[in-house]
Description:
CATH architecture of the largest domain: Sandwich
Distance between the termini: 63 Å
CATH superfamily of the largest domain: Exo-inulinase, domain 1
Order of helices and strands: HHHEEEEHHEEEEEEEEEEE
Amino acid sequence: xxxxxxxxxxxxxxxxxxxxxxxxxxxxxxxxxxxxxxxxxxxxxxxxxxxxxxxxxxxxxxxxxxxxxxxxxxxxxxxxxxxxxxxxxxxxxxxxxxxxxxxxxxxxxxxxxxxxxxxxxxxxxxxxxxxxxxxxxxxxxxxxxxxxxxxxxxxxxxxxxxxxxxxxxxxxxxxxxxxxxxxxxxxxxxxxxxxxxxxxxxxxxxxxxxxxxxxxxxxxxxxxxxxxxxxxxxxxxxxxxxxxxxxxxxxxxxxxxxxxxxxxxxxxxxxxxxxxxxxxxxxxxxxxxxxxxxxxxxxxxxxxxx
Length: 306
């Protein structure tokens, strides 16, 4: 009986072995398997990257209709979007910007306005102020604001209307070091309290927090997307409309960058800038906030990356 069963099992197995040796079909892979998904995503991204390079060449050679190339790039980018995850976040609710996450005041002065967020201390143009971690009182801030308004009313404070004059103003600069992928999504809530403000938010590469991309807001001017590198700073694109947010309310600024280099900046859900730049292809080393005049409060800021 045992011999019969053994012979029966062998007879069943032999055709299966022969079929496996001669079959043109391979073992089926479950598409829901994480390793299979990773391989598939990499293949799709690789194809999208190659397609974007071909589109770049076609644009430079003017080999096709610009509208068609724009639509083709949008299609390629839709398949190259990475999965983002939170890499940086601060709401300043703990009343301390020196830890969790840690910010470093490079120049000027900042403090936490209780119930509001991170606020710059108003400084006179040309005034030298050392970086400080001191938390000033709201009373000191009120005195500073009142003095600034009075000087504007009496005409003793000149309006900084050009980039060159703004560059000579005292800059309040604060940075936080965090690894941010080249593709990212940044969101922040910002309020502006007095006119003639100059506020920048950006991502940087290097130890001096200089090189990288920035968003520039100037009261009553178009919103600008800048790049800063070894050749200086230049404007990549700017909004078609003027922007004024001096209503003492918080406004949501969202800035996204795709792997293809396409960037989108919106304010309160309205798209302001859409442009592509590939000057920086490596990851970024942190975020930076700065102002040259004005009174700004950042309630929260967060960054998602790959």
